[in-house]
Amino acid sequence: MATTAKEMKTATAATISKRPYAHPLDQLTSDEVVHVAQIVRGVKAGMNFVFNTITLKEPTKSVMMSFLGWDTSKPRVTQVEREAFVIILEKESMNVYEAVVSLDSETIKSWKYVPDVQPILTMDEMFEVEELVLKDEGVQAECRELGIKDMSQVFSDPWAIARHVNYPGRSKRMMQALMYMRTCEDDNQYAHPLDFIPIIDVGKMKVVSIERIKPRNSKFTRPTIPQMNHNFLPEFVGEENFRKDIKPIVIQQPQGVSFTVKGNEVDWQKWNMRVSMNYREGLVIHNVSYQDGAEKRPLFYRIAMSEMVVPYADPNTPHHRKHAFDVGEYGMGLCTNSLTLGCDCLGSIYYFDACFNDHEGKPFHVPSAICMHEEDAGILFKHTDYRNGRAHTVRSRRLVISQIVTVANYDYGLYYYFYQDGTFEYEVKATGELNTHVLAEDETPGDYGVIVAPQINAQYHQHFFTMRIDPMIDGPNNSVVQYDSYTSPFPTGHERNKYGNAFLAKPTILKDTFEAQTTANFETSRFWKIINENRIHPYTKEPVGWKIMSNNMSPFYPSEESIVAQRAPFAKKGLWVTPYNEDQMFAGGFYCNQSDGSDNLEAWANRERQNVQNTDIVVWLTFAVTHLPRVEDFPVMPVEHVSMMMKPANFFMANPGLDIAPSNKATNKSVYADANVAPTSSCCSSSNGNKL
Q1: CB 631, CB 450: distance < 8 Å
Q2: In whole angstroms, how far apart are CA 140 and each of 144, 222, 433?
Q3: Which of 279, 167, 311 is nearest to 586 (CA)?
Q4: Counting C-beta atoms within 10 Å of the first and last residue's C-beta, which end of the chain has fewer, N or C?
């Protein structure tokens, strides 16, 4: 089972041993976090502040391209200054300051006040707000009116407030608390939602108002709390009720794993990459390359989830404020789980730890934050010669690098997959619990939700995931081509379509930021390719490239004028392409908490017409799921799969998996389930008919 955020927070005494050398892309160690905090406190001793963020300041791309050996136009950079980026919140005023600290010179290199912004919400604040809410007299009065006398039964999920009409702007740091109760310890709180939401001024640490959620189309002025329990933990289910017909599946690699790890650098067959984690994006993959014969070919400088947003459909207050930016408001790193062997990953597992900071500038260590292992991925390719019955089967294997995050009710498994044929896939496995809303006894959800249990409404919502892909396909200058397939414009009988079966694919190069904002089109089987126009494939006589696709691209259903559309306009398009800019990392803007929508991907793309052809570009791909909850999603949701994929398209000279040995039962230890079945021929046979 995963370790909770609170358990990780209390384990701050655990530290990561100081390394004698840190790669420029490695996350800060616990010792470095402490050192940075000491430097800042030493210089700003007169200030009363908390540390919102202490994280690695990644070196500039131009420096790293030389350091990594891709830019050979000048002498290679061999040493890179180690720097930290720090965000500080002044107490009470909630004024925000940014600092860049050099760990090499032990100095503050820059310090600036940033007006009218609110940085990411931290675990410290979550715990403080939850404690504050329970002590508030107004909250206690609301609970008494609902029949709750014991406040130890009451719980809250502190949420970002989005944009509140009564508290506009970002001069005040605000949160809202979604309220629930439990009938006993470890009871499922989402089975007992309450009907009011406290609004909190975090700077003052005070509940400034309480909003009731009024029943609609009901004879009641206030709902009762549903008392029926809906639990899923094993102690509630009961061991006697577990299925008795499940036999163990054991995954073994008796000769060890096929990957090697040096620090945070990973080699797996022909892939090479670096793994890192930060407080915001969580798991990041850097410097991806593929060994193609004697040539090591660069593919991607950096890949990470830039932002995600979850807009809810109910237009009534306060539900319209429920559109969580799980990356920019809470942080995929800060919300990451400590993973457990045999539960979250199976087989021979390698773990990477993570380290973040608390408000005092102390490190808190998340052991086993990243899981890496290999998986069988089905058949990679197969062909059977029907003339002689000879079959040739090669099974696929993939390298899996993953993390799991918990953001209030939702849990997300985030998986980077690398396949032997050069395919890359990013998959989100959404699970956890539904965000629930209480209904009066005679109330219905209307058009915006479904009753998953008596008086429990699960509202319709969407999940949008935006990947930031920084490509270097055979070099730093790339372009993006859009492909659409059409029925031939020539009618049946025409000399160019005599029998009417013709169809064609039309490529369109996206030349600038105005053209390069586009949506999915399933009628034309639309996909995109990142290409290098400076390297031509010898067979196709066209640029080498990588295909981008997703079967999970949904329209953005909130209206254009909605608050969430203003704050998350990146979700309105499936693909954007922008020139590389090191200050444009997050699709919802760097300070997206309580944002007004003035700083985000759409604003950058539309600011002016910018060239994105044959230059250093960034590709932003958004994939999504529209979640209309089911009764089967309660009390805990089976995993919902949603993903995007990139694969070589006229990049290699042939199938890059041809050199993978064929599969056979002697190697993979497959056996017959029925011992009485007579053996048949192997799936793989040699040319002389001898079975392998």
Answers
A1: yes
A2: 6, 16, 26
A3: 279
A4: N
Residue 469 amino acid letter: I
Tokens of 264: 């945070």
Residue 184 domain flag: yes
For the stretch 122-145, what's the b/e string if a residue is b when 16 or more beta carbons lie within 10 angstroms of its beta carbon?
bbbbbebbbebbbebeebbebbee
pLDDT, tens digit, 9 for 90 and up, residues 419-462: 999 999 999 999 999 999 999 999 999 999 999 999 999 999 99
Asked if the structure places residue 559 within a domain, the reply is no
3-state secondary structure of 73: coil
DSSP assignment, residue 270? T
Provide the token pair at 409: 């009710």
Give the C-alpha separation, 337 to 349, whole Å: 16
Distance between CA atoms of residues 180 and 192, nearest Å: 6
CB burial readout 379-404, b (16+ within 10 A) else e: ebeeeeeeeeeebebbbbbbbbbbbb
Which residues belong to the active site? 326, 410
Cα–Cα distance, 162 to 311 (Å, whole number): 11
User: Concatenated DSSP letters for 230-272?
Assistant: ---SHHHH-GGGS-S-PPP-----TT--SEEEETTEEEETTEE
Could you report the per-residue pLDDT of 58-89, keeping only the tens digit for each?
999 999 999 999 999 999 999 999 999 999 99
**Measuring CA to CA, which residue among 567, 572, 559 is closest to residue 593?**
567
Is position 642 within any domain? no
Query: How far apart are the C-alpha atoms of 180 and 157, rounded to whole Å?
Result: 8
Its domain, for residue 136, covers: 123-241
**How far is the C-alpha of 294 from the C-alpha of 321, rounded, in Å?**
55
CA–CA separation, 632 and 431 (whole Å): 12
What number of other Cβ atoms are within 10 A of residue 540's Cβ?
11
Average pLDDT (391-407) is 96
Total number of domains in the chain: 1
Angstrom distance (rounded) from CA 589 to CA 604: 10
- CATH assignment of the domain containing 218: 3.10.450.40
In tens, the pLDDT along 641-681 reads 999 999 999 999 999 999 999 988 888 888 888 877 666 65
Count of beta carbons in the 10 Å neighbourhood of residue 332 = 26
β-strands 107-114, 295-311 pairing: unpaired
- Residue with structure tokens 């993939």? 398
Evaluate whether 165 touches 143 at the Cβ level (below 8 Å): no
Helix then strand count (H, E) for the chain reads 9, 31
Q: What is the per-residue burial (b if ≥16 Cβ within 10 Å, else e) of 59-85?
A: bebeebbbbbebbeeeeebeebebbbb
- How far apart (Å, rounded) are the C-alpha atoms in residues 273 and 268? 9
- Taking the C-alpha atoms of residue 98 and residue 89, their distance in angstroms, rounded to an integer, is 9
- Cα 154 to chain centroid, rounded: 30
Decide: 348 and 256 in contact? Cβ < 8 Å: yes
Q: Give the global pTM.
A: 0.94
Burial of 152 (0-12, 13-18, 19+ CB in 10 A): exposed
- Residue located via tokens 């599946």: 249
Contact between 380 and 405 under an 8 Å Cβ cutoff? The reply is: no
- Read off the tokens for 683: 């799936």
Token pair, residue 192, equals: 């007992």
The kind and range of the H/E element at 486 are strand 479-487
Residue 1 placed within a domain: no
Taking the chain, what is the end-to-end CA distance rounded to the nearest angstrom? 41
